[in-house]
Amino acid sequence: MAYNSIVVKEFDILVVGSGLAGLTAAYHASKNGSVAIITKSQLDISNSYYAQGGIAVVTDPEDSFESHIQDTLEAGRGLCDLDAVEILVSEGQKCVRQIVELGMQFDQEGGKFFLGLEGGHSRRRILHAGGDATGKGLTCFMLKKVQEQNNITAFEYTTVVDLLIENQICTGVQAFDFVSGNNIVFKSKATIIATGGLSRIYDRSTNPHTATGDGIALAYHAGAKLSDIEFIQFHPSALYIPGEDAFLISEAVRGEGAWLLNQQGERFMQHIHPLAELAPRDVVAYSIYKQLQLNHSDFVYLSLKHLNPELIKKRFSTIYHTLLKYNIDLTTDLLPISPAAHYMVGGIQTDLHGETNIEGLFACGEVASTGVMGANRLASNSLLECLVFGKRAAEKATQGKSVPAGLPEVNIIHVDEENETLFLETKNRIASLMSKKAGIVRSAEKLKEAIEELNSIKNQLPEKIDEYNLLKIKHITDICTLICESALIRTESRGGHIREDYHLEDPAFCVHLIQQKNQTFKFQEIRK
Q1: Which has the closest alpha carbon to 24: 55, 52, 60?
Q2: What digits encode the pLDDT tens for the residues 501-522?
Q3: Which of 8, 60, 84, 327 is 20 to 30 Å from 290 at the Cα level?
Q4: Contact 395, 416 (CB under 8 A)
Q5: 358 found inside a domain
């Protein structure tokens, strides 16, 4: 499909991505102008959609903002910005109230919200919808709200290939429509990137195949600052079946009392952390990793045998029925699990309104680094961040200047199907490389080897790229190089970044690590 036609479209606001953050931003932005949602697959394919856990929010009279803030700061290992966390927790309560008033239904028991418990939380505060299908419930709810707005137009199977920047101002995006083969120039007052994470750059991941970090690469090449992207969260409990995708077993399962057992059938977490199986994710993932090394095994076990089977079937119906397809009964069998790449903790650096260092360019959701997550995301804060900062980004974005006149110069992109195999082979090679050299545990030696191999892949690409599959290879190699470089600079172990050659946290690294194109890296103080 090598058509050369350029289609030009104008909207007040562009939203790139259709997860919960993107849908939330589009919904709020539509109150003040026309909105385009651009998504490279379908509107309902996103990390948010697959989120099982829930949404952490203070609703219980015995709970408090202070407690939720403290739990978030503790999980973040000293790298959270306090003002961002305070906004998340206090405005989060308002945002959840708003969507409940709009008709969103969370699970209830006896006329009150049923509150779940997850790792790192000091009390029950997790709202669920449909048991273990909260992400799907929330995303579908916001999707319905978006589809009810006449001034929101969705562009499915359309991928953004470049951000249009003039004089340090974002004036829109260039996209490629897979169906027509056309290049589309979208002009706008403001662009909100909500493209989600990048965990599919690893072998084992709980993310959909679309989560390869496009938004981060686009923002980086446009000159946006990235923050803390060495921190990748590996979910401790993803089903391990050779040859199958890593299916997520929600942290809420451990919240209801499931045990982690080693190959000898012994619990091992009580000796490691006072919260045992409910320790923060980085602690649990690393502890499982050590068990795998110790026993030369590919998995440990998750056991629910000691829990009420009827309660488990009702509470985790999605997980229960999915596991039956693998001939595993959640209530009676030992589940083979091992960690899988799950969440990008850092991302495109934004201010408290989601704006980047480029005027008119915003980011929200997993792709953004708002200062909320620190070195390790607290369970179930991610959907809350989508609601709070999606709304904030939209409100600020709609205050933008007028849509710019004139047509910018663009590099026409086409798709050559012959390169699809090359892309898949290269992507798999990089995923294997990242899992081995920049996974749960890193070292200077492994990271340098990874950077060397990534550079050799990059050097085989043409200087000017006008083909989509080659552009994707460039984006993935760039992102992986940036992760490895930041992991190499951070000579300590903290949160989702563990160095086997630097075991301890170093107080000197209680800073954000900022990367920007054509600039040397910088450290930035935490806002306390």
Answers
A1: 55
A2: 999 999 999 999 999 999 999 9
A3: 327
A4: no
A5: no
CA-CA distance, 337 to 385, in Å (whole number)?
28
- Amino acid identity at 378: L
Residue with tokens 């959270």: 80
Using CA atoms, how far apart are residues 300 and 237, in angstroms rounded to an integer?
9
CATH number at residue 282: 3.90.700.10
Q: What is the pTM of this model?
A: 0.94
| Percent of the chain with pLDDT strictly greater than 70 | 98
Is position 83 within any domain? no
Q: Which of 339, 374, 396 is the last residue of a domain?
A: 339
List Cβ<8 Å contacts ≥24 apart for 271-277: 275/119, 275/120, 277/119
H runs (alpha helix) in 229-280: 251-255
Question: Looking at the structure, do residues 330 and 240 belong to the same domain, yes or no?
Answer: yes
Phi-psi group of 310: left, alpha or beta (phi > 0 → left; psi -120 to 50 → alpha; rest → beta):
alpha
Q: Is residue 313 part of a domain?
A: yes
Q: What is the pLDDT of residue 4?
A: 55
Pick left, alpha or beta for residue 495 (phi over 0 → left; psi -120 to 50 → alpha; otherwise beta). left
Assess contact for 280 and 70: CB atoms under 8 A.
no
Share of the chain above pLDDT 90, in %: 86
Q: Are 521 and 486 in contact (CB under 8 A)?
A: yes
Report helix, strand or coil for 118: coil
- What CA–CA distance (Å, rounded) separates 426 from 167? 35
Q: Name the nearest CA neighbour of 10 among 147, 150, 153, 145.
A: 153
- Positions annotated as catalytic residues are 281
Q: Are 18 and 37 in contact (CB under 8 A)?
A: yes
List the one residue out of 99, 45, 355 whose CA is nearest residue 224.
355
Q: Domain count for the chain, please give it.
A: 2
Distance (Å) of CA 16 to CA 113, 190, 354, 384: 33, 11, 14, 19
| Largest CA-CA distance found in the chain, in angstroms, rounded | 68
Residue ranges with strand state E in 100-231: 108-109, 112-113, 115-116, 126-127, 152-155, 158-166, 169-177, 183-187, 190-193, 226-227
CB 213 within 8 A of CB 475: yes
Tokens of 350: 């934004």
Encode pLDDT of 180-237 as tens digits. 999 999 999 999 999 999 999 999 999 888 899 999 999 999 999 999 999 999 999 9
Instruction: Find the domain containing 319 and state its range.
Output: 236-339
